[in-house]
Design a protein that fits this description.
elongated; 132 residues
Length: 132
């Protein structure tokens, strides 16, 4: 092992040529153009994502009843997002790459009197309770 490391050091010392590597941002810019809201496809994608988010929110709210398992509500929301996005984004982009879809951030619920995000593990048993 030390022979390999020593050989690598010798090779590095002998090499006077410095290899110039372009920054990652420049390389990406050459590969495909930056997408902005000036592109109608981008706007349409955001509009469809908003429709999906609103529909999932309403369906999750309907499941928020006393005694409901918070983990089940969150999983239901994630599954619904995956289902709805798979119906819309099936094809490929203009460059031939598959369109990315799905859950970017898991569904979270503010549980009971605690105001924060909660997306529990399946092993946790957080229940919705009546605080009024």
């Amino acid at each position: 092992m030390s022979e390999i490391v020593d050989k690598k050091r010798i090779d590095d010392e002998e090499s006077d040529e410095e290899e110039e590597v372009p920054p990652l941002e420049e390389k990406k810019a050459e590969d495909e153009p930056e997408l902005t809201v000036e592109d109608s496809d981008v706007v349409t994608k955001y509009q469809e994502a908003a429709k999906i988010a609103n529909a999932v929110l309403l369906d999750c709210l309907a499941r928020c009843i006393v005694g409901a398992n918070v983990g089940d509500i969150c999983k239901f929301g994630d599954d619904l997002i995956n289902e709805k996005t798979s119906l819309i984004y099936r094809g490929k982009s203009k460059s031939g790459k598959p369109i990315e879809k799905g859950v970017a951030f898991p569904v979270c619920v503010s549980v009971n009197e605690v105001v924060c995000n909660c997306s529990p593990l399946p092993s946790e048993q957080n229940k919705v309770k009546n605080i009024f």
